[in-house]
Amino acid sequence: MAGERVQKSPNKIFVGVRFGVIPSEDLDEEFTLKIIKSLQDNGAEYVPLNKHGRLDEVNLYTHIIATTSDFPDYDNAADSLIPVITPTWIEHSLQKQKRSNTRGFTPDPRLFFSDVVLHCMDIPEGDKDAIIGGVLAMGGTYSSNLSGIVTHIVALTEDDSRCEKAKTKNPQCKVVLPHWFDDCLKLGKKIDERPYTFPDPEILNSEFSGPVLKHRENQDAFVPSRKTDSEGLPEDVFPASSPSPSRRALDIFSGQNVKLSQDLDIGLRLRGTLEGLIRSAGGYVTENISSADTYVCQYRDGSDYIHASHAGKSVGSLLWLYHMLKKNTWTNPMRRLLHYPIPRNGMDCFKDCRISISNYTGDARTYLQDLVAASGARFTGNLSQNNTHLITAHTLSDKCDAAREWNVNVVNHLWVEESYAKCEVQTLSNPRYTHFPKRTNLGEVVGKTGIDREVLRQWHREQGLGKTPTKAKAKSNMQLQEPSPQKQGQSTEQEQKSFGSSLAELTNDGSEHSTPLTSKAHRARNMTLPTRTPAANKTAAGKENETPPTTGKRGAKERAVNKMHDLAPDIALYEKEMKRKGGVIHGRRRVNEVDDAKKGKEVNAGRKRSHVESEEDDEDDEGEEVPTKFKEKGKAKRAKHPLPPIDHRMLLTGAIEYVADDKKEANLKAQLRNMGILLTGNPAEATILCAPKVMRTRKFVAALAAGPLVVHTSFLDYCIKHDSPPPTASHALGNDRDTKERFGFHISKVIGRARMNQRRLLRGWTIFCTEAVNGGFDTYKEIVSLNGGQCFLWKGRESVNVTKRKPLPDAGDESQNQGGEEEEDVLYLISGTGKNETVLWGKFRALAEKHDMRPRIVKPDWLLSCAMAQQVEWNEEYELEG
């Protein structure tokens, strides 16, 4: 919404809208008054917040206007499916003279394209569909007309006169390359569009080859200064103009009870200062966790933490408290990783990680250092061969070059953030963790990952924190207690609301990579889930409102009754199945048949939903047109048949005719998937290797390490024609005389050795490779890695540590294919004969001699032959002299 004018519609398009406005830095008092007047003049009803700035009852509202999702009642609004929308929604609706769909105007940071209105201009149809689909999925909108509300035009050139016309009418409109959307979707974050913007996109300029500077400061990576003033508070909590707490008009804790945990490990003076700030901000300090609304602690353990988490209270760290005091704005502690309490002693999955950081500066670097420490990994300022990971904002630095030489994993900050959020080290095969867009400094998007609530709930279970505290805390117990058998299905509205909010607090997925719209529906369903009476004997001590457990026969009887309660749903289901003709195993109905009564209920439910849904949800007009293929169909869809389980994963190489275009490849994938075969591009997971002949392509050589079934492309022809896979033996590849003459082996024998080796042909081997070698370093690194070895980039650094190979105590049958004792003291360098490579040979020989090993500089053919034969054999024709 522009804010300078108030539009009035003769149609009063907002009749029936009951709205509230959440104040924030972007919504000052004057702007808020204009929003209220604009809506009221067009038929809406304003429902003010209470005296504490909170929503009394979220169900009183139909719409909530906010520029951020960081306010205390956001989760309750999402649970109740009340749309939270930005003021732009009002402007768009008034321009069209009807309500816009609220989906494209959410302030939820997970929908990072929510402020994007897209128009595509003269780009290939396939790319256009992919971009539109990605933008719509991430909260954006698409306009087929070049109207004044378009924010981004996607084009390959700026030659079209319409681009200049659009920018003249709307100076804020940007003309960007399609690469920007591709990089944003790969990272799952909205990065700066300036390097992709016409008239001079930096990513197309080959002259830019130096380090990438940040285009903008990142406020999400806020970390208070570690220097403290005389009272023990970080200096930057207070602005210079307000050096003392008494001069600040804080109101973030208005009417709230706050408890400061003992595990914060702060002195009495600092605690007193914090308590004074909380009181000056309108709050009250309490020592009783049952009466507290907010709990500030350092670690994710202790009875108070468990109670506060299960009761749906705000639980945050001291850093979160500092952040709110500085901004004087309430924020969700789960929005930033370090604003939520950390695991005591870190996470077990990070114990073996040694992490260094490069190209992140200022607060972003400090934040990442603290995150590494909180995870339980070891942070090192200097990079060495002992490091396991290097986190970098871009790859243009000496540290990144050294990491590649030493085979240290080079990742962006998303890897450590999402590993911490999910309490599990994420696989590096996910390309989002190794993607570094050109001319972009990823320090701009640090700190935008939040706590994953579903994972947090699972982590609570694994740590034994899944129950409420067992001391006398009746309030918490009542909030979590499920209805008893005789009252099941008759709980009061207040009980359901309390149970739903508590469940949502621990189950909602707060990560940015879950689909937010799905999460909302999931949260709504959670509020009405049927429940069972919990077993009383699962708590360590009796609750205040329960009879203490007894001993002897009576205690045994109670335990048996409780166990029966747990088994009741399973027993009921079994009895229901037994009533069917044929019993449980051979019942009349199958799983894929729909019960008539159930079908009728679904039809009625669908009618109710369609009647209740607002007309705005179905509108797609010229301002927000959605292509037909992306619209939701009004007609009921037929139930899809479940796909068969995946029996094989097929890797296709050298057969371009089968994947000549996207449509042909998509049809092939779908047809194979219906046969239980998944078409993949990853050699590491292939169980079927399909090619027109035995080849020395990267995919073919790498895939042989797993011992897959190797078939001719005639296998595919049979699948396409008969819609079912043939016997693989009739389509085997590579056992002919021609293959024997060209490569010196039969594929059947190679596969036998590969299965004997079990990906361990090169286990214990350290092989070096030059950067300019034909085929590229990454090709040979993949082949060596899939065969169990390590491949390092060689740039002449003699500080590398290598050791002679020795027979391993757990060596298996693969040892007979590893070349024997004569290979144990040989150090290999794979190289070409270019000038930039030959100058490195002398240093390599010096490195080998330093470690009492024999240097052997070889052509790439040596490795390819070993990998294709699944056997290490030396031939002098592979050696390079010089």
Automatic annotation (TrEMBL):
PROSITE patterns: BRCT (PS50172). GO terms for cellular component: Cul8-RING ubiquitin ligase complex; nucleus. InterPro entries: BRCT_dom, BRCT_dom_sf, CellCycle_DNARepair_Reg. CDD domains: BRCT_BRC1_like_rpt2, BRCT_BRC1_like_rpt3. Residues 9-107, 108-198, 345-422, 812-880 form the BRCT domain. Residues 476-518 have a biased composition (Polar residues). PANTHER family: REGULATOR OF TY1 TRANSPOSITION PROTEIN 107 (PTHR47667:SF1). Residues 225-244, 457-560, 588-642 are annotated as: Disordered. It comes from the Eukaryota. It holds the Pfam family RTT107_BRCT_5. GO terms for biological process: DNA double-strand break attachment to nuclear envelope; double-strand break repair. Residues 590-605 have a biased composition (Basic and acidic residues). This is DNA repair protein Rtt107. Residues 614-625 have a biased composition (Acidic residues).
